[in-house]
Amino acid sequence: MRYLPASERTEIGGDFYEAVTTPAGLVVAVGDVAGHSLDAAMVMGQVRHALRAYATEGHPPQAILDPLDHLLTSVKPGASVTLCVILVEADSHTLHIANAGHLPPLVRNPDGTTWYSREHGPLLGLGLPHPPAHQVTVEPGSLLVLVTDGLVERRHEDTPCAPSPRWPARSAWTLKRPAPNSSTASCPTAATTGH
User: How many beta carbons lie within 10 A of that of residue 42, not counting itself?
Assistant: First the structure.
């Protein structure tokens, strides 16, 4: 995985990603704290570490969003965070997607066709309930792309509401199934598609 900032200008922000191996599979997440300040960076650190702790405890994606939302409303009222958390099940190609107001994940099938998972709930920090995670099965060899606006925005330009075709060139996870009779568990591997 490679992080490519939208600007070479140094500016503190709240974009983050996380990947945690759990007994259920790999939990991947990408999020963004509103604002570009030291305060946004501090909130990002708190949310990212709490996310890692909840994922390590084995909580499914939707069950990670609820305590994170409670954390924000209790400790940092007024802060808001978008976050997409995905569990990639071990030994299968099933994804459990819980999206709290974040840009939608993109799946590129092996034949080149693409689709977005558009199911989502409210962003974190509002104290609103989150819907259950959406479950989808993808084909072996599919590419899962998660982005933040920090990866795709340009200074002095509005980020489009609809996903852009240039987003898949930023970062991705390739889902691979192990060879038959392999003792290695199925686990997505980091991949970069270039730019």
Answer: 15
Rounded CA-CA distance 5/3 in Å is: 6
Tens digits of residue pLDDT in 13-29: 677 888 999 999 999 99
> What is the predicted pLDDT for the residue at 194?
31
Query: Which amino acid, one-letter code, is at 182?
Result: S
Distance CA 118, CA 35 (A): 24
What's the rounded Cα separation, in Å, for the pair 69 and 122? Answer: 10
pLDDT digits (tens, 9 = 90+) for 86-139: 999 988 889 999 999 998 898 999 998 888 988 889 998 899 999 999 999 999
Q: Which letter does DSSP use for residue 80 in this model?
A: -
Sheet of 134-137: strand order equals 15-22, 25-33, 81-89, 94-100, 134-137
Overall pTM surpassing 0.85 (yes/no): no
- CA distance linking residue 139 with residue 113, whole number of Å: 11
- For residue 113, which phi and psi values (nearest 5 degrees)? -70, 150
Residue 62 φ then ψ, to 5°: -65, -35
- Between CA 4 and CA 192 the distance in angstroms is 11
CA distances from 140 to 27, 33, 119, 155, 175 (A): 18, 33, 22, 37, 6
DSSP string for 141-155: T-EEE---HHHH--T
